[in-house]
Design brief:
The chain has 653 residues and is mainly α. 70% of the residues lie in helices and 0% in strands.
């Protein structure tokens, strides 16, 4: 009996192992077949062979993680084959599944669209469900438009019911333009609103005006703005007149609005109008002075004061200006930067104890704002000057750890490890730009689709992820758009990822580095790469307002002078020629400025004449004191951006 039980136990164990093994093999096999069939089907789809692709997508096993996208692609094939009922059937399988994938809402929206086109009354139920279940999605906003059309499609005979149906339609159209004034159906919504001939409120007219403005029709925007009141629309009046090229009218509305109506206006709208106003003056300072003399005391007054303080010349006058601004608006939008300016002035005046007190206040009150890395760094310098060496190093480490991608992290690293020199990175090790996530939501579905190069579906599923949109732009060869999208996405992250995170490669790709490394001469190639990134964002056709062209944004006169002096061959392609000339020009600047990269970078933007002039006028003891006193804000920021970019490139590669 014991032997029989032991034998039975062996059989049970064997069957369990066999079952588990078969399950693992079957799933592995299904996943492998899914990838193979999906890849082949996608090639057929891209070749517009929709019938064949439909059959091939159908071969993806049900147990494969690619089954939902395969069904989605089958629905697309059926739509292209003019078989809407078949497409609806495939979409419905996805919608009815228990999947929480991001492919579900777009499938339901596409299905509702096809139902709408085939006059299937079930469309209304699905559009309403999308609004309820995915309220913040683009599909929910678009559903408002279709629901409005459906309310008008079969008008009731009863006047009372007809009025209610039209009222519901009107609400849907108004909701759409309020949420998406620049949406693809926004102008169509306005057309439908006009057909209904409703009595529009001031707010309705303003929303319609904003929609025309967002779509570039400034004349029609003006027509509807004229049906509103200045008290609620003055900033829109001003912005629209500036777009129409009517500077005098724009300035009139700006001055009137700032004096009488700014208190009830969103700050960002006020700031935008102020910037437009200042841009109409030949000298920026003249516009700021005129606004300053208006005696503003409402929204925008702090911004005007801030701009005025930024233009003031002279340390003592600048400090007094920012101190007045800070004391008047201690919790305003510009209070942190005002306090920083007072702090850095005290530091440059060598009043270290006064600066330290201000630094403690800034770090306590503003623990994570734009100026925090700078304050933290200079608190380290103050501690060092006061011989508190451990405290100084702690501040430097905090900058490197908490604000790793800033100019001040580069400077803090130098102060921690001075023996390594000012340029610790001398070359880059090539790493390819790849999909920015190793893992994703949807059980890595998006990652699999990305590696299968189903760019269109990935783009639709991840519309709000700028890193993924950046990667898609990169894969399509739109390198400038890719770099800008990734930069903006990284700037929006409060906590930056470690430098081995794949997203950094999108923000700082190695475009043209092979050329840079060949023509670098005695220059650090990473500095040249950083200049290219900051000057043109890798756009070889970039052209500035003053005529600087190409990857390294050289003025034509400078380019021609370098080509003639160094007898560069005429058959170089545009990218190689521009980078070669840029490298040679940078070399000449560096040689004239004591072979210092800092000064060469400064001169590349501000001009060598300005830099040599600053040598005699500025009082400074080290790099930091020189940079913080550069009189041109654009040049000061440029130097910090190039060195920050150099620092990040070195860390990423």
């Amino acid at each position: 009996m014991r032997r029989r039980r032991k034998y039975d136990l062996y059989i049970v164990i064997f069957l369990a192992i066999f079952t588990v093994g078969y399950f693992i093999y079957n799933n592995t096999s299904a996943e492998s077949r899914g990838v193979e069939n999906y890849s082949a089907a996608l090639d057929e789809y891209k070749a517009n062979d929709y019938e064949k692709a439909f059959q091939s997508f159908g071969k993806v096993p049900s147990s494969s993680s690619l089954k939902s996208p395969a069904l989605f692609r089958q629905a697309r094939c059926a739509t292209n084959m003019k078989k809407p009922e078949l497409a609806i059937k495939k979409y419905n399988r996805i919608v009815k599944s228990s999947s929480k994938s991001s492919i579900v809402p777009i499938s339901e929206y596409n299905m509702a669209n096809l139902m709408f086109e085939t006059q299937d009354k079930r469309a209304k139920k699905h559009f309403k469900r999308i609004i309820k279940k995915y309220p913040s999605s683009d599909y929910a906003i678009a559903s408002e438009y279709y629901l409005g059309l459906m309310e008008l499609a079969n008008p009731p005979k009863s006047p009372k019911r007809l009025a209610k149906s039209q009222e519901r339609a009107l609400i849907h159209f108004k909701t759409y333009i309020e949420k998406a004034p620049d949406g693809r159906f926004a102008l169509k919504c306005i057309d439908e609103i006009k057909k209904l001939e409703p009595k529009l409120t001031n707010y309705d007219n303003l929303m319609i005006a904003k929609t025309y403005y967002a779509n570039g029709d400034f004349d029609k925007a003006k027509d509807f703005l004229n049906k509103t009141t200045l008290a609620e629309s003055w900033s829109d009046f001003a912005k629209n007149e500036y777009k129409l090229g009517n500077k005098d009218k724009g300035n009139y509305y700006t001055e009137l609005g700032l004096k009488e109506h700014a208190a009830n206006t969103e700050p960002d709208d006020v700031y935008e109008v102020i910037d437009n106003y200042i841009s109409t003056f030949p000298l920026r300072k003249d516009g700021i002075v005129k606004l300053s003399n208006m005696g503003l005391n409402s929204t925008g007054a702090d911004y005007v004061s801030y701009l005025n303080c930024s233009e003031v010349v002279g340390e003592n006058v600048k400090e007094a200006c920012f101190r007045t601004l800070y004391e008047k608006y201690p919790s305003g939008q510009f209070s942190a930067d005002s306090l920083y300016n007072i702090f850095i002035t005290k530091y440059l005046q060598k009043k270290y104890y006064d600066a330290q007190r201000l630094g403690f206040l800034h770090l306590k009150k503003f623990p994570n704002v734009k100026s925090t890395p700078a304050v933290t760094y200079f608190m380290g310098k103050i501690a060092f000057k006061l011989k508190h060496y451990e405290s100084a190093n702690n501040y430097y480490r905090k900058v490197v750890t908490d604000y790793p991608d800033t100019y001040y992290a580069y400077r803090a690293n130098y102060n921690l490890y001075k023996d390594d020199g000012t340029l610790p990175f001398l070359e880059l090790n090539e790493k390819p730009v790849v999909f920015p996530y190793k893992k994703s939501l949807d059980h890595n579905l998006v990652v699999k689709l990305a590696y299968l190069k189903d760019f269109d579906l990935v783009e639709e599923l991840c519309k709000k992820d700028k890193f993924i949109q950046s990667w898609i732009a990169y894969e399509k060869g739109n390198y400038t758009i890719s770099a800008v999208l990734a930069r903006n996405a990284m700037d929006e992250l409060e906590v930056k990822p470690p430098f081995d995170d794949l997203r950094w490669r999108l923000v700082y790709p190695m475009h043209y580095y092979e050329i840079v490394d060949k023509v670098k001469g005695d220059n650090n190639p990473i500095i040249l790469e950083a200049i290219i990134k900051e000057e043109s964002h890798f756009n070889p056709f970039a052209k500035s307002g003053v005529g600087a062209t190409g990857l390294m944004q050289l003025m034509p006169s400078t380019y021609n002078e370098v080509v003639k002096k160094h007898n560069l061959p005429a058959n170089l392609n545009a990218e190689t020629a521009n980078i070669t000339a840029g490298s040679l020009y940078y070399t000449s600047l560096k040689r004239m400025l004591g072979n210092k990269d800092l000064y060469a970078i400064t001169a590349y933007n501000g001009g060598i004449g300005s830099v040599t002039n600053w040598f005699s006028k500025l009082i400074y003891n080290d790099t930091d004191e020189f940079v913080e006193q550069i009189p041109y804000p654009e040049t000061k920021n440029y130097v910090k951006k190039v060195l920050r970019t150099y620092w990040v490139y070195g860390n990423v590669y």
